[in-house]
Amino acid sequence: MPEKVILVGFGLKQTPDYEITDSLDELKSLVKTAGGETVAYLTQRLEKMVSATVIGSGKVEELKNLVAEKEAQMVVFDCELTPSQLRNLETSLDCKVLDRTQVILDIFALHAQTKEGKLQVELAQLSYLLPRLIGLGKTLSRLGGGIGTRGPGETKLEVQRRKIRERIGRVKKDLLEVEKQRSVRRRLRVEKDVPIISVVGYTNAGKSSLIKTLSKDDSIYIKDALFATLSPVSRKIFLASGKQVIMNDTVGFIKKLPHSIVEAFHATLEEIKFSDMVIHLVDCADEHLESKIAESRKVLAEIDATEIPSVIVFNKVDLISDEKKEKLGMTYPESLFVSAERKTGLKELNDFICVQMFDKAAESKKSDI
Predict the structure, then answer these.
(1) pLDDT digits over 256-291, tens only?
(2) Sign of the CA dihedral 43, 285, 217, 239?
(3) Nearest Cα to Cα of residue 164 among 191, 192, 186, 132
(4) CA Rg, the chain, in Å?
(5) Pairing state of beta strands 244-249 and 233-238?
(6) Rounded to whole angstroms, what are the CA distances from 183 to 37, 174, 245, 260?
(7) Dist CA 168 CA 125 (whole Å)
(8) Cα–Cα distance, 62 to 108 (Å, whole number)
(9) Hey, which of 19, 48, 53, 203 has its CA 20 to 30 A from 179?
(10) Which own/partner pairs from 360-363 qualify as long-range (CB within 8 Å, at least 24 positions apart)?
(11) DSSP string covering 150-200, please?
(12) Which residues of 21-57 are buried (b: 16+ CB within 10 A; e: fewer)?
């Protein structure tokens, strides 16, 4: 039985309604991916966030009654909570309280399959936990001593912090080794003069499905869930011309992506910077695709990957009307339309890659002579 969850959204007076509802809809999908069932919503607007509980005391009481009415086991806030806010809310509501970041970290832990993925998730979890240790209660503030501590004057809180810092150091060292191995593989590809294409975009846009279809590799993990791919997957793609490219799958983007996750996955995201081309894949059946395109572009800007030649490819074209397709084509005139599942539009994508990666590259070389 999935845990019953109540979602709480918070916005300032000037926050548009759609921003709050869209974010809560996304949080509902995150909770579902993590194994929970959303049974109710509660939202509040204020001039500023209440420092102790995010929402006002009246809303906390309303939320407490809603928890009892719906027999909910968990409340998830659509923001990042401080340790004291978590503690105050759990005391008031008498149930488990999580924030958006904790749900995302839980999903990442659920989907981490490779050594690198597991290390990155652990680093993100430890980075999130470290500043929050102080909110874990009085047990960590008692003096430690004897075996396993640094000295009789060190508190359990300090012991925990030291252990986490040491573990963070070891994980970063292990990730550096993985990054070195990837750098060697990347250098070999460059020496062989094989173009590298990264497929980027919002989580669950169908990036893995597209690469699976193009590479005809059934071993690629596909799941209709958020963040199904955490580690870069590289596959050879043979074009109709007989030419070959390497196509990289990447971790999906999302709104309010926690800083701890961005830092932990920095090396993975940086892989995009070494691409010869970026395919920005978009779910064209998504009602909020414009904001998701903007969010993806924001992440690309953060990793300095905006100068790489790119193309927007709308996936799941079989799920939209001809009218919507025509409208998107006018708004994004350089875009392409495909269905990775139905295998439509792939020839046009194949031809486009051929022209960009080989024909134009050859012309450029001639002009340099």
Answers:
(1) 777 677 777 776 677 788 889 999 999 999 988 998
(2) negative
(3) 132
(4) 24
(5) antiparallel
(6) 42, 14, 17, 23
(7) 10
(8) 32
(9) 203
(10) 361/195
(11) S-TT-BHHHHHHHHHHHHHHHHHHHHHHHHHHHHHHHHHHHHTT--EEEEE
(12) ebbbbbbbebbebbebebbbbbbbeeeebbebbbbee
| The token pair that represents 59 in the structure block | 């809303």
Structure tokens at 26: 């996304």
For residue 159, the tally of other CB atoms under 10 A from its CB is 17
Query: What is the rounded CA–CA span in Å between residue 150 and residue 92?
Result: 36
Instruction: Find out whether 74 and 96 touch, Cβ atoms under 8 Å.
Output: yes
CA distance 163 to 147: 14
pLDDT average, residue stretch 211-236: 68
* Distance, CA of 100 to chain centre: 12
One-letter amino acid at 349 equals L
d(CA 25, CA 353): 35
Tokens 């395919």 map to which residue? 279
How far apart are alpha carbons 289 and 307 in whole angstroms?
22
Against a cut of 0.85, is the pTM above it?
no
Confidence category of residue 60, pLDDT binned at 50, 70, 90: very high
Element (H, E) at 283: strand 277-283
Give the whole-angstrom CA distance, residue 171 versus residue 321.
48
- Bridge partners of 246, per DSSP, are 196, 236
Q: Which residues pair with 4 in a beta bridge?
A: 37
Torsion sign over Cα 239, 241, 246, 252:
negative
Q: What angle do CA 116, 269, 238 make, to 5 degrees?
A: 90
Nearest CA among 243, 252, 247 for reference residue 210: 247
Distance CA 243, CA 362 (A): 13
> How far is the C-alpha of 117 from the C-alpha of 106, rounded, in Å?
13
